[in-house]
Design goal:
two-stranded parallel ribbon; elongated; mainly alpha
């Protein structure tokens, strides 16, 4: 639905619906171009629905602005009546564009690599939730057949997503699979299993597993039904973790093609996965005019609550931005908190707030704010240096 207004509220185009097809978007673009040169298109960011419209209008040379729907909602539309239709919304957006004409920032389509990276990152977060649920389910089941088996191995995940304890319960799904044979027989079977799976064999570990299995109390019998439940859960978890590994590798491949990758990876507390997630959620930092903009985008800036003589000194964060970005920032700051690097500015700021007696979430959020500002400065400097280098080579 599209409507057009001129200054003083003159209606140029009444609300009209255009189909989201190539022909429909072409008619929309031609209708906008016919209004004159100094015409701007404003639309709400509505998930993925607005993206083809914004990209199509941008290709026709139309100045496009995409804003958060909250701005339109808070503007009120100049009426106390509650009217919610597509036509009313189109008029409200057009009025907002006129009222905020000078503040409308031009939309620039996200680069193909950045767009793919963000999509992969969102899919990674979705599959990660499934992996956590499947892992908790498998641990719950094995607690009935082989209690604590997930804590018997400390081997990290392999590049393909496989993990030793999961492979182990697939083969030894019940503690009686271990303790009902002799120690020698189990040790030999464990040796062959390690060789077949490519794991390091330790005779001491085999003895430890055998002795532990004899002391466990199980609540599920060793039968075909229990075996089906355990092995099926283990295979599902292995498959999900393999999917995560493939996505992680693809995300890294895409991120390495972006000029700021090495700069982000060099930042303290940023790992291979968190670096990619940061870059995916933030995008090109040059679209933010100042440091406070990227902090507001993440939603880790304190809200303002001042009225008359009332000046609030402690306000919660706005949390208007991406929850995926805030989660990544929290994970990074947790690394600072755990390792306590005394020479790092982010940790110094965190420790200062903690020494002032601030609550946990207050100083953790303050540290996220500090980290984002440093990220903005370093990455923007890196991108500017890359642009200058490319211009000099040309």
């Amino acid at each position: 639905m599209m409507a057009a207004l001129r200054p003083m509220g003159e209606i140029v185009l009444r609300p009209k619906e255009y189909p989201h097809t190539e022909a429909g978007l072409e008619r929309m673009a031609l209708a906008i171009l016919a209004l004159g040169e100094d015409t701007r298109a404003l639309m709400e960011a509505t998930g993925r629905y607005h993206e083809p419209v914004a990209a199509a209008l941008h290709e026709y040379g139309i100045r496009v602005t995409v804003i958060n729907p909250l701005f339109i909602k808070q503007s009120g539309g100049g009426s106390i009546r509650k009217v919610k239709t597509d036509k009313a919304d189109a008029m409200k957006i057009a009025k907002y564009a006129l009222d905020n004409w000078v503040d409308l920032r031009e939309y620039t389509p996200m680069g193909a690599i950045r767009e793919q990276l963000k999509l992969c990152s969102r899919q990674y977060n979705l599959y990660m939730k499934n992996v956590v649920a499947l892992q908790n389910n498998l641990i719950s089941l094995t607690d009935k057949t082989f209690p604590g088996v997930n804590e018997l191995f400390t081997s990290p995940d392999r590049a393909d997503g496989s993990q030793k304890w999961i492979d182990f319960v697939t083969a030894f799904w019940h503690c009686e699979c271990v303790c009902l044979v002799s120690e020698t027989a189990f040790t030999e079977r464990y040796r062959k299993w390690c060789r077949r799976k490519g794991y390091h064999f330790s005779e001491g570990k085999a003895t430890e597993l055998y002795m532990d299995s004899m002391s466990y109390i199980t609540t599920l019998p060793r039968n075909s039904n229990t075996r089906l439940l355990i092995t099926t859960a283990a295979k599902e978890l292995t498959s999900a973790k393999a999917t995560l590994a493939v996505l992680r590798a693809e995300m890294t491949r895409l991120a390495q093609q972006l000029p700021e990758y090495e700069t982000v990876r060099a930042m303290y507390g940023v790992g291979e996965t968190t670096a990619v997630q940061l870059m995916a959620e933030i995008g090109d930092v040059r679209r933010f005019p100042r440091r406070s903009s990227i902090v507001s985008f993440a939603g880790v800036d304190p809200a303002v609550d001042d009225s008359g003589k009332h000046i609030s000194k402690s306000n919660p964060t706005t949390k208007r931005g991406s929850p995926h970005l805030r989660k990544t920032l929290y994970q990074i700051v947790c690394t600072y908190l755990r390792k306590a690097p005394a020479d790092e500015p982010v940790y110094q700021f965190l420790d200062k707030k903690r020494a002032e007696g601030k609550p946990y979430f207050v100083y953790m959020t303050a540290a996220q704010n500090k980290f984002l500002r440093i990220y903005y400065a370093r990455v923007k400097e890196s991108l500017i240096a890359t642009d200058i280098k490319e211009l000099s080579e040309d």
